[in-house]
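Ligand: 2-acetamido-2-deoxy-beta-D-glucopyranose. Inputs:
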Amino acid sequence: MKRFRHFAYFIEAFVLYLIAIENVSPNVIGKKESESTGNLGLYNASDHVVILNATNFKSSVYGSNSSWLVEFYNSWCGHCLRYAPVWKDFSRNILAWRDVVKVSAIDCADDDNNPICREYEVMYYPMLRYFSVDLKQGSLGLVIEKGKDVSTMRHNLVKQLEIEQQEGRGSTWPNIVPYRKSELESIWKAVKSEIKYTFLIFETPNSYVGSSVILDFQNVHDMHIRRVTSDNELLCVTAKVTKFPSLILLQRDGSQKSLGIKAPTREGVRKSIQEYMSSVGINIEMMDTMEEYPEDNSKVGENDEKQESGGSENFPDKFGDVVFQLDLEKALRYSIAHEIPLSKMIDREKLVALKNYLSVLATYFPMQQTGVVYLSTLHDIIKEKRNISGADFRRLVVSTEEEMSPVYSGNLEWIGCKGSSKIYRGYPCGLWTMFHMLTVNFAVQSFKEVEYNPAKILRAMYGYITNFFGCAECARHFAEMANRSKIFEVKNEDDNILWLWRAHNEVNERLAGDATEDPQHKKIQYPGAKDCSACRDENGNWKEDAVLSYLKSKYRYEGINFYKSSIKSKEEAGGHNVTKIRKERLVSSSFMSSRKLGWDFTIFDISICVVLYVMSATILILVCIKFAVKRGYRKKPYVHSFFGRV
Ligand SMILES: Cc1cc2nc3c(=O)[nH]c(=O)nc-3n(C[C@H](O)[C@H](O)[C@H](O)COP(=O)(O)OP(=O)(O)OC[C@H]3O[C@@H](n4cnc5c(N)ncnc54)[C@H](O)[C@@H]3O)c2cc1C
Ligand SMILES: *[C@@H]1O[C@H](CO)[C@@H](O)[C@H](O)[C@H]1NC(C)=O
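Predicted complex:
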């Protein structure tokens, strides 16, 4: 009986364990969901841009009977915001070509798309990849130049489509390769017998008019269009063409006729064809979406609904110019759980950058106890590595986070860095805030390190920005600025703070009035007079001492605002909890080695213990049953009843 009670205890423990495991997953899923819905992307259904995601990406671009142009973008990246209207215009401009090529986009800022963006080696945004018609799985597609405006993009695409056809792909597409023969009769061989009209567009070899018109009319089945280039001299002579572009109509009876062109453009040629066809009673409807739109000058995000405000209209003003714990934590999480894992492989310079970054975070990033241990653990593990893939780093980050959950002190959302619309601010704002906070606390905290280096924070930041930051243009600017203003030659910790302050103001100056500027948060030379009147003299020149003390009081731990963070409730328990966090942090790091054993037990380890326990207990039970059965045989024939009596 005793053995069975033991077994019952054990089963109970096992069931509890299962329940515990069950309870972990909904949490994790809940977090993921809020994260992906938080990123609404830059496109919606009305934009004629196919929205791809991790679920439909591969099934769309591979083995398709059209080719695909994919924009890999990032919903917070300034260049992507500026590029989105161009991409929308482009897709609208070639909407009639959609059976030949699909224009699409995928948001790499969405956590769910992380594996896809890593796999396709998207190292800057926006990045365009072209996937050929009927492409096999495994190809990464072809990186295509962005092109500064819609017509350049269309030309680049036409070039690509022409190559495809010359290489024998896209056999169902209309033929955009120039007609090479010198006689006109054989042109009818490729034409269905019911088609009565063939148009020839004569143009110079580097013109895109012919191909564009052919593609525009690809779904019109009453006529046939080919292009002829001016280097086909024989045919030009036969057709008596001397001016390019020219439009010649051929009919089955062998007659040919030169049609006037109103303007030597895609629209002009299209119109001439349309008018001729309508004169013979065939009306060709053109989609209005195809009209050449004037270059889009509309402000980015004009049509985007404002964020659900919930009284947060002038929200940050209510608190003044402060740092929010949740902004810091959200930037941290996006950076380590999303942005770093986008790298395919982290080694060499990248790995050095990662180690420096984690080292700085583990020492200076203010978090609650579990968070501090979490960062130290990541740092300790990465410190020993010689390389790690982005995917493995992501697994490490996520599993460590689950294990030590809750690491973050609230539901991560932007507070101070929230934009007036979903497309503004967010992550880059969070990242600036985090690095300012780090430079200040590096200077303010009294714990001096063994290997003292005044540029420590800036070095970590430089490494992060140039190796991992998703905004490649920003990184290029930053590296250029670092070089010019001698980032690594800062003399002391205060210099660290001021260097970053100046650098940030330089960026603010460049971006003032830019399309990415949030109208409710103008780029100012910071700090503004409203927040720090003492920071400038009567001539408006900076008083750096005053600036320094302003920055110190804003960004130091004691200044952090815990709005919506669970740390706030600790505060109610009394005391300066920030200093308390720091103390805990220091205590925990000095005891790290002795505590390590405890933290090294992962869910996996525990599972193994449980499994072993179950197995040995089962064997024990089986032996026991066998024993009992043997004895029972003499008294009662059924094992069944034996259990029945228990
Ligand atoms: C390293 C880096 C380089 C970037 N380079 C570019 C670029 O080249 N092109 C581009 O389009 N975007 C760039 N960005 C993004 C851009 O700087 C902004 O982050 C983004 O436009 C969001 O702006 P924001 O209004 O939220 O304020 P941010 O500029 O992000 O500032 C965040 C907060 O920091 C505080 N702050 C502002 N200025 C200072 C200062 N001088 N010192 C201390 N605190 C300050 C303010 O409280 C402000 O609200 C870069 C971002 C980073 C992190
Ligand atoms: C991906 O997009 C498809 C089609 O828009 C949608 O049905 C699906 O739910 C999306 N998947 C994810 C994970 O968002």
